[in-house]
């Protein structure tokens, strides 16, 4: 698609109004405590670097001025050998800071490597790495540190760094593993996998940015802990006491009985330096989360930014008037007579494999999705809707396993591909190019530490590496305009958007590469009815304009009836009814469907009591014999306990037909999509005879009345 100059200009204007990353540092520096901590740490670092040039004396040089208090010639006094304590402090800062920062870098890198890897890859790798971390966690760190340091008395600072790294990495790795285990199940990570992002890119762009606060806190804490450990080892004489550090100064002060002789200037400066540096690092740590977490940042930095945003907004409005947005020609409207199948699912079976056996979450599900059609899938929680969505997109992960079935996708040129036979490379090209998914709960599906525009752009980067930055920015602005989000919102974080706007942003992510199919897994969850109406109207508008097909999954039948062309109802992992939306609403054929419809109030007509459905959905590990809905069905009879009903095709009075998996319809013809031979007990003649001779004496609705949608 050619990018218009107006879109490029609008992208530039939007980028200008973002304020830039420099304002994040300004936000960090606005905290007095954090600023104080940064200044103190910076002073220590600078003094450590320039110590050889600013030190007034050689720290080891002796003189006749022994145990002299602070004076003009010796600002911090001297030792019993006449050595200048200020020079020792400056040189000691080099060793102490080197040990602290060096140990923190190595410890943090090892913790991140082990913790994130173990948490993300899972399986046997997670078990082995977790076992290694647990071994080091149960070992007493202080005795282990002392023992290792005793064997490395002349290794200097490098030896101390290695000792601290070996004894200190496990705790951080444990914390990061727990955080990664939580993040890897978040929808925005699933979305990144679905868009074809490489594993290393997901870790770098989605996992690690959400753990920066934890990593930074661990790093700063390790710096403080390493300095204290080094000082403790030196004070005990377990380090090289000929190398000057703050701990070495304390060691010689203790050896020279400074406390007993009243030479407070010998030990106070070193102890005070350690305490002040630790306090400064703690102050910096307090401001880290506020700096990193977008939720804690104040909106706007000052008046100048607001004025610049107003100017940029005016520029954006001027750009919008320069030319119309790029729009595709309207697609032909979908009709029930359409035969242009874009997705064909046959006898799909998805099982969860565990120690207790195999649990079928989706059993023998078959349907066709036609080009431009909205297929709605309804059912209670646990009926298999989301599992079906993940199977279609091949996003299911162990212990989920597709054990049976076929999924065929028909390209616009008429060629057909087998989705289940695709390897990782083919799947990466298929997802988001041909089929995308909009996850439920947009607040969790969007990465909280990335701006909306950046998350949309990630999809483009993964699949359109040839696009340059201005073209990608223009495409982001175009997509936001398509879903009705102002261009300047590209620089907003998810928490800065309303629920409806976040959901529209997720739809923009799904539309980024113009897919043929969009799977929407409960996209209106937790939204109020007004916002639901806006989302549904936007979906319908986009479908009619862009011509894609939709698999729409929801609990809300009233919403589904209004939106969908065809509705499939799932129960116990199976499709129990499939019909055109109007036929489903006016003539539901399955008792479960009638119960679902009876659970919603009507806005017009006579008042009626909401009956709902008694009981609870079945446990998929222990499905009842025969019909899974039998224990809750008010029309069950003896045959329902012995036979698993197949889908029967039922003709509608005004034309068309519905499919229902109920023995009340055994006088209808079995659907060709089902395999009658798969269940020997499902003989239509036998079923018809059983249905004719059996009934529910407690029900006021006869089988024939239920089949025709009439009641007494």
From TrEMBL:
PROSITE patterns given in the database record: ABC_TM1, ABC_TRANSPORTER_1, ABC_TRANSPORTER_2
Bilayer topology: Multi-pass membrane protein; Peripheral membrane protein
Classification via CDD domains: ABC_NikE_OppD_transporters (cd03257), TM_PBP2 (cd06261)
InterPro entries: AAA+_ATPase (IPR003593), ABC_Ni/Peptide_Import (IPR050388), ABC_transporter-like_ATP-bd (IPR003439), ABC_transporter-like_CS (IPR017871), MetI-like (IPR000515), MetI-like_sf (IPR035906), Oligopep_ABC_C (IPR013563), OppC_N (IPR025966)
Cellular component, GO, one term: plasma membrane
Assigned keywords, A-Z: ATP-binding, Cell membrane, Membrane, Nucleotide-binding, Transmembrane, Transmembrane helix, Transport
SMART domains named among the record's database cross-references: AAA (SM00382)
Domain of life: Bacteria
A biological process term (GO) from this entry: peptide transport
Family under the similarity heading: Belongs to the ABC transporter superfamily.
PANTHER family per UniProt: DIPEPTIDE TRANSPORT ATP-BINDING PROTEIN DPPD, OLIGOPEPTIDE TRANSPORT ATP-BINDING PROTEIN APPD
Protein known as: Oligopeptide/dipeptide ABC transporter, ATP-binding protein, C-terminal domain-containing protein
Organism this protein belongs to: Actinacidiphila yanglinensis
């Amino acid at each position: 698609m050619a990018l218009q100059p107006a879109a490029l200009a609008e992208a530039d204007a939007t980028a200008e109004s973002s304020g830039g990353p420099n304002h994040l540092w300004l936000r960090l520096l606005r905290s007095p405590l954090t600023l104080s901590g940064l200044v103190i740490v910076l002073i220590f670092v600078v003094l450590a670097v320039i110590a050889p040039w600013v030190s007034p004396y050689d720290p080891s040089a002796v003189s006749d001025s022994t145990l002299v208090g602070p004076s003009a010639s010796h600002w911090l006094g001297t030792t019993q050998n006449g050595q200048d304590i200020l020079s020792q402090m400056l040189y000691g800062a080099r060793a102490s800071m080197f040990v602290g920062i060096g140990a923190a870098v190595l410890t943090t890198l090892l913790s991140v490597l082990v913790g994130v890897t173990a948490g993300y890859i899972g399986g046997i790798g997670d078990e082995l790495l977790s076992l290694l971390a647990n071994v080091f966690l149960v070992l007493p760190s202080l005795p282990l540190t002392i023992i290792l340091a005793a064997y490395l008395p002349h290794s200097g600072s490098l030896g101390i760094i290695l000792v601290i790294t070996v004894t200190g990495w496990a705790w951080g790795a444990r914390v990061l593993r727990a955080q990664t285990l939580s993040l890897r199940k978040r929808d925005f990570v699933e979305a990144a996998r679905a868009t074809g992002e490489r594993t290393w890119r997901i870790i770098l762009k989605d996992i690690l940015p959400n753990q920066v606060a934890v990593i930074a806190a661990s790093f700063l804490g390790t710096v403080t802990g390493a300095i204290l450990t080094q000082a403790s080892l030196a004070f005990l004489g377990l380090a090289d006491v000929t190398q000057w550090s703050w701990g070495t100064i304390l060691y010689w002060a203790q050896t020279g009985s400074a406390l007993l002789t009243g030479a407070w200037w010998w030990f106070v400066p070193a102890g005070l330096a350690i305490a002040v540096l630790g306090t400064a690092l703690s102050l910096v740590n307090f401001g880290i989360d506020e700096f990193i977490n977008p939720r804690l940042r104040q909106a706007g930095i000052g008046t100048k930014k607001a004025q610049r945003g107003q100017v940029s907004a005016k520029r954006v409005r001027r750009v919008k008037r320069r030319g119309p947005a790029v729009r595709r020609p309207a697609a032909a409207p979908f009709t029930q007579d359409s035969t242009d199948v874009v997705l064909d699912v046959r006898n799909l079976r998805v099982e969860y494999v565990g120690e207790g056996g195999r649990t079928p979450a989706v059993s023998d599900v078959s349907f066709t999705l036609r080009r431009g059609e909205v297929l709605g899938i309804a059912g209670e929680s646990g009926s298999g809707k989301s599992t079906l969505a993940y199977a279609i997109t091949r996003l299911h992960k162990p212990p989920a396993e597709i054990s049976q079935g076929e999924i065929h996708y028909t390209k616009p040129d008429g060629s057909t591909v087998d989705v289940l036979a695709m390897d990782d490379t083919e799947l990466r090209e298929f997802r988001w190019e041909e089929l995308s998914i909009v996850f439920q709960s947009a607040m969790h599906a969007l990465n909280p530490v990335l701006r909306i525009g950046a998350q949309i752009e990630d999809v483009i980067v993964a699949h359109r590496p040839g696009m340059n930055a201005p073209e990608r920015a223009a495409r982001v602005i175009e997509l936001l305009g398509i879903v009705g989000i102002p261009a300047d919102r590209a620089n907003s974080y998810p928490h800065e958007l309303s629920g409806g706007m976040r959901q529209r942003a997720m739809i923009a992510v799904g539309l980024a590469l113009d897919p043929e199919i969009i799977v929407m897994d409960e996209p209106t969850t937790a939204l109020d009815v007004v916002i639901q109406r806006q989302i549904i109207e936007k979906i319908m508008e986009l479908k009619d304009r862009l011509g894609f097909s939709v698999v729409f999954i929801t609990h809300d039948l009233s919403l589904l009836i209004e939106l969908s062309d065809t509705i499939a109802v799932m129960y116990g992992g199976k499709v129990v009814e499939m019909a055109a939306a109007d036929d489903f609403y006016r003539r539901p054929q399955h008792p479960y469907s009638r119960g679902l419809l009876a659970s919603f109030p009507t806005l017009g007509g006579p008042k009626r009591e909401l009956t709902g459905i008694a009981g609870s959905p079945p446990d998929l590990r222990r499905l009842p014999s025969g019909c899974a809905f039998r224990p809750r069905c008010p029309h069950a009879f003896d045959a329902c306990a012995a036979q698993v009903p197949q889908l029967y095709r039922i003709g509608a009075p005004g034309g068309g037909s519905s499919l229902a998996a109920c023995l009340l319809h055994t006088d209808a013809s079995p659907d060709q999509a089902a395999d009658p031979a798969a269940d020997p007990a499902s003989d239509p003649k036998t079923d018809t005879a059983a249905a004719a001779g059996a009934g529910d004496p407690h029900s006021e609705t006869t089988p024939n009345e239920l089949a025709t949608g009439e009641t007494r």
